[in-house]
TrEMBL record:
Every AAA+ ATPase domain range: 266-446
InterPro entries: AAA+_ATPase, AAA_16, BTAD, P-loop_NTPase, TPR-like_helical_dom_sf, WH-like_DNA-bd_sf
GO CC term, one of those recorded: cytoplasm
GO molecular function: adenylate cyclase activity; ATP binding
Organism: Candidatus Blautia stercoripullorum
Alphabetical keyword list: ATP-binding, Nucleotide-binding
Protein name: AAA family ATPase
Lineage, uppermost ranks: Bacteria, Bacillati, Bacillota, Clostridia, Lachnospirales
């Protein structure tokens, strides 16, 4: 049987047993290509597409001639006539057609491939319309497949693949600003600011040269935002900070919230949540640095556990910074002169009460004056408040912050804050009204994964082997603070898995204030190097019934000290960070540890006998 290969992608041609065939005339060639796509068609359909301008008799005659020429060229078996109505390719003599592999998920090997490229039939408008529709369908297949690959590459942050598929999309739709915007945002979210900026310049050039127009205000605004982020998050010349490395996606998302370029379409506040040491404050400081490029007035306050019972303590810092803005000439002294005096008098009166709660009229007065003061400021300047560790903020401060946002609006004033996810429920309840009205976005930042940790270790400790990197990851669990402390200690002493004095103080503070029974459960858990079943804990804590033990374990999970894992149908418990286990184990006396080990050894020995 003869082997026929039909190439419809790019410049079309047909090979018979490896030799190119020459058609006697264009319409016969077009007729064959049409059948190669359709596989079967009615005579009326073919006549309309190729000989639509002729009368019916002439059209039928021309079709018969075309059928004869195709059979003469490729063999009479190639076509099958279906009575007097239809014509089809012979399924038993089907040629190999490259179009048959086109469908959803198809991406061409060559970017220049176009369906029936440069193939035209003079004065055959119906055929040209059909070719155009097929080219459009072909393009849609490719764009859909390439866009899917682009998003897959974005998920794993493969810059080379993002660039490859982004370029394919742009070549196929070079004037589509929405496409440029999408790819620019993908680049920027991955920290590839220069590539995003270059893409904008490419768009600007092609629009000017081909269409004589400029990019829209929307994409120009995106360009300026990316340019600003790039200029303000650069690490050059700064002391290195592991906690911030790799947070490009988070900082770009925050820039979207500040500028109102996110899904909501309006500015949003941001609450950065995460475990202790994950890098929340480092990210907050970088955002504060970035906001300088937005020409906004920034005010800062930090919250501390020992000040939680002092009403409006963080706002004292905010008011003090407003005073500094006046002294430094950022605000005109006359702009808020009256409100500043009133605030000073009210706070002085509250302080003279000996730390007691503010009376309701006093708080209402402070609230009213603060809102009026911020309203006056935001008529001329946009403001951003930066609040660190708001889990330690008092109830009145939360109320004032919420009221201010709801009254003045996020278009004029925003806040960016951090909080320990150990206090997630309390903080989200305090922000309930803002969350309900979509005025705040919660951004949870996670510890570094194994790959990110290895990249950081390769950058700062390139001498480490794979086994040492694995041990550091297992010890730190990707926590930025612990990782940074371990890197500093290894730089000083050589490879070690010691816990630094600074890390010891942090863990000690984290465990301070735990009830005695919770500490006892942690002590028992630390005896086990890996996961522990509840039955094993019951062995070391015989005075506790199972229900009480489960409640204690749940409490420790809420404090993010331990976590629960399921292996098959069995539930196990383990420390969130290995450094917690090491610290708790080392703090116990040798005698206490020996008692636990003896109890376990006796239990396992008896188990072995039975």
């Amino acid at each position: 049987m003869d082997k026929i290969n039909v190439h419809l992608l790019g410049r079309p041609y047909v090979e018979l047993n490896g030799k190119r065939m020459n058609f006697p005339y264009k319409k016969a060639e077009g007729f064959f290509y049409y059948l190669c796509v359709k596989k079967n068609a009615t005579r009326e359909e073919i006549i309309y597409v190729l000989w639509g301008s002729d009368n019916e008799n002439v059209g039928r005659k021309n079709l018969r001639e075309a059928v004869y020429q195709i059979k003469k060229l490729m063999g009479k078996e190639i076509l099958v006539t279906e009575g007097h109505t239809g014509i089809s390719l012979n399924p038993d003599y089907m040629p190999v057609i490259d179009w048959d592999k086109v469908g959803e998920g198809y991406i061409p090997d060559s970017e220049e491939e176009v369906f029936l490229s440069h193939f035209h039939i003079k004065n055959c408008y119906e055929f040209e319309e059909w070719v155009s529709s097929m080219q459009e369908q072909y393009n849609e297949y490719i764009i859909k497949a390439v866009r899917s690959r682009l998003h897959e590459a974005d998920k794993v942050k493969d810059v080379n693949q993002i660039q490859k598929y982004g370029n394919i999309l742009i070549k196929r739709d070079p004037y589509n600003e929405e496409l440029y915007k999408e790819i620019m945002e993908i680049y920027a979210a991955g920290g590839n600011y220069n590539m995003a900026i270059k893409l904008y310049y490419d768009l600007e050039k092609i629009l000017a040269e081909d269409l004589g127009v400029e990019p829209s205000g929307e994409i120009t605004g995106l360009f300026h935002r990316i340019f600003n982020v790039k200029g303000n998050v650069a690490q050059t010349g700064e002391s290195w900070n592991v906690s911030f490395v790799g947070r490009t996606q988070e900082i770009y998302m925050i820039s979207q919230c500040i500028s109102g370029a996110g899904q909501r379409g309006k500015p949003q506040c941001v609450a950065i949540a995460g475990e202790e040491g994950v890098g929340k404050t480092a990210l907050l400081n970088k955002v504060a640095q970035m906001v300088k490029g937005y020409q906004r007035v920034t005010l800062h306050a930090a919250c501390y556990p020992e000040e939680k019972e002092y009403f409006l303590r963080p706002w004292n810092d905010i008011f003090w910074e407003i005073e500094q803005c006046v002294e430094n000439g950022i605000f005109e002294s006359s702009l808020i002169q009256e409100e500043r005096q009133q605030i000073r008098q009210l706070l002085k009166g509250a302080a003279s009460d000996g730390g007691e709660a503010l009376h309701q009229p006093s708080f209402q007065s402070i609230e009213r004056i603060t809102i009026e003061m911020c309203r006056k400021i935001t008529q001329r300047y946009k403001m951003v408040l930066f609040l660190d560790d708001v889990q330690w903020m008092d109830t009145m401060s939360f109320q004032l912050l919420t009221r201010l946002l709801l009254t003045v609006g996020t278009e004029n004033i925003l806040f960016i804050c951090t909080y320990d996810k150990n206090s997630d429920q309390a903080v989200t309840e305090a922000f309930e009204r803002l969350i309900r009205q979509d005025l705040i976005r919660i951004l949870v930042i996670e510890p570094f994964n194994r790959l990110e940790t290895e990249e950081l270790l390769h950058k700062y400790l390139p001498q480490l082997n794979q086994e040492e990197k694995d041990k550091i990851y297992e010890m730190s669990e990707g926590n930025g603070f612990f990782l940074m402390e371990m890197i500093n200690l290894i730089k000083e002493k050589g490879f070690t898995l010691e816990i630094s004095p600074k890390a010891n103080h942090v863990i000690k503070a984290r465990l301070a204030g735990l009830p005695e029974i919770e500490n006892e459960v942690l002590n028992c858990m630390s005896v086990f190097p890996e996961k522990i079943a509840i039955e094993e804990l019951e062995l070391l804590l015989p005075e506790l019934d199972r229900l009480s033990l489960i409640r204690i374990l749940e409490k420790l999970q809420e404090r993010y000290l331990i976590k629960e894992s399921l292996v098959g149908w069995n539930i196990y418990y383990e420390f969130v960070h290995r450094v917690f286990r090491e610290y708790i184990y080392d703090r116990q006396s040798m005698g206490q540890r020996r008692i636990y080990h003896h109890m376990l050894a006796e239990y396992y020995e008896n188990q072995g006998k039975t």
